[in-house]
Amino acid sequence: MATLTGFTRLFNFATNTCIRRILPAPTCKQYYPAPKLWEIRVADYRTRYRLPWFPKPPSYQEEIPEHDEKKEEEASAVINEINKQISTKATGRLFAVVYLRGLQFKITESDIIAISGQWAPQPGDKLTLEKVMLVGGKDFTLIGRPILNRELVSVDATVIQKTLSHTITRFRFKKRKQYRRINFYRIHRTMLRINSITINGDIDKKKEIEGLDRIY
Question: I need a surface site. Which of 54, 159, 189, 213 has the fewest CB within 10 A?
Answer without folding.
Answer: 54
